[in-house]
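Step 1: inspect the first sequence and its tokens.
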Amino acid sequence: MVPPDVPTRDAARSLDAAEVERLRADFPILSRKIGDRDLIYLDSGATSQKPRCVLEAEQQYYEQFNAAVHRGAHSLAVEATDHFEDARAAVAGFVGASPDELVWTSNATEAINLVAYAFSNASAGRGGAAAEPFRLGPGDEIVVTEQEHHANLIPWQELALRTGATLTYIPVAADGALRMDLAPQVIGERTRVVAFTHVSNVLGTITDVARLVELARAAGAVTVLDACQSVPHLPVDVKALDVDFMAFSGHKMLGPTGIGALYGRRELLNALPPFLTGGSMITTVTMERAEFLEAPNRFEAGTQRIAQAVSLAAAVGYLSEVGMDRIAAWEEKLGARLAAGIEPLDGVRLLGPAGVPRIGTAAFDVDGVHPHDVGQFLDAAGVAVRVGHHCAQPLHRALGVNASTRASTYLYNTEQDVDAMLSALADVRGFFGVNA
């Protein structure tokens, strides 16, 4: 049962069980077995499964349109370029951005590194007067949170080392809740960057983006949002969020691996010094110097992820047709069912604060049983979950554990999937002989 103080979405807007069963037919992998058990896939937080239309879009591109984009005047090259840029427009529109505000990257990790290294280049004197907002040095501060995935922590640690800036962070409470009461003390007049996750990849909890943006704006700081766990699961509008930069990955939102995206405000992208350099991102090159195109092309050196972009556009089309508000409402139901089923289990601790908004993700610790053993036991029951520190060691350390087991749902999961995982989980401690 959902605690009464948890905000819930309009149940009438949710998917229903019959619709989810119809959607499942679009995902070929969900029909396979693990041993003699039907696959129950509860690891979409790591990577999502792909509907048939996404698989077909990539195949069709290679069969019908394959050519280098933005190069050549022959028919295939023109058609490939059109498909590539149409994909950019589709993905940008999905998050409320303009096409020229969306840069293709290999994944969200690269997108965040792009911003961090562009800050480095600005701090080294590149970019002229326009790059002044990105120059860091001793006395400046970069603020993150203790909830961050390593992809939104290590690039900022490295930037601090390169520039002499100081890295500081907003801590979490003992239950993993972000200490928003301390945020005004951490974000101040010396803050130049505030980088934070929209949704915790471990806990599934949703950050108060508006409050952190408000504090960053007051300090004159640039905001960078890790939206890997929000864009696939929640309606996201970058203009409403009012962030300066936002990173997300295709493979977590029904798309292929090998592609991600960086949103950036147009004026900021055009002021950022490039990160990768080479062909296709320049206007003029002499033996002494080069001049660069405006965004997004200035950040897209070399041959791009063309087929992946096209298939990611198919993925956002699929998600849009289903409806992100309806997906979010369904996952909220599944997440509440997970939490309600985990909490009463003896020796099993549900990680994260109670009574707060979260997506359909639950991480837990089983007393006396290593998460890897938990994961293997569940796998034997056909249930795929994630085990380990989930690239968030500082958060686990704050929670008093080295690792955890995480179940993460998506639009193709059913209540029966959740119940099967809970049934298997109830048997874990007995199987390993650690019942009290």
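Step 2: inspect the second sequence and its tokens, then contrast the two.
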Amino acid sequence: MVTGRPVSTAALCAATALLHPGRGRGPRRGRLLFAGSAAHVGPAPTGLRSRWPASRFRPEWLCLVAALVPALLGGSLLPLLAGAVAVPLVGRRLRARARVKERDRRADTVIELCAAVAAELRAGSQPAQALRFAAHSTGALGAEEPAVLAAARFGGDVPEALRGAAGAAGADGLAGLGACWQVAVDGGAGLAAGLDRLEAALRERREQRERLRTELSGAWATVVLLALLPVAGLAMGAALGADPLRVLLHTPAGLACLVVGGALEAAGLWWAGRIVGAGEEP
């Protein structure tokens, strides 16, 4: 087992490599200057330089930064190994949360699209013109916008194109827009009135989802509190002079307790997350 100065040196080297990742800026600038058709000579634009650090930074790498503290205090590389294991797990969780936010944002733009199309129709615009204006102003159609607008402009199957665009996460409301469009074309019903009802239904579903998340926030807070209890116990032991990190990281009984406790902690978090996450599913 490695202790003392070598551990501190290794931990500080890891911190240096993590906090100063910008050694390859020259090659990246070269690839930026000569990529595609951008024949730009000279230094990169200020806006691009300001976005480089943000594009390279990933929040999950903070797990290694947090692991440096117990690694230095306990004189062991085990916390760094645990932090390295946590990086992909935390990254996966953060990406899942980002997908949920993107889905909600897309759902909001679909609601805005329905409201904008209905407003344009009442203002006297034709359906294709109203859809084109609303799509440009809201961006709700995403990558399928050219196909949908082409179908609307040249007499194609607009409902089918809208159903195809509804396959994106959070854009399922576009299938309702396609149904309203088809009913208005085939049966002569008012498209604006149908879109008003669709918008009201989508808003009600969004409000219901928000209420459910508010009710589950207390359960998530309980899960986080239970997960932090072991850390609080270690802090209390250190305050009492028991040196829990030395016991956990440098004794066979402590290592056994650390492995078993870590496994139970991970299983408990996974189980609690599954229970609370099941309540969030639509």
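Step 3: confirm your contrast with the notes below.
DSSP finds twelve helices and no strands in the chain. Residues 1-5, 15-54 have pLDDT under 50 and may be disordered.
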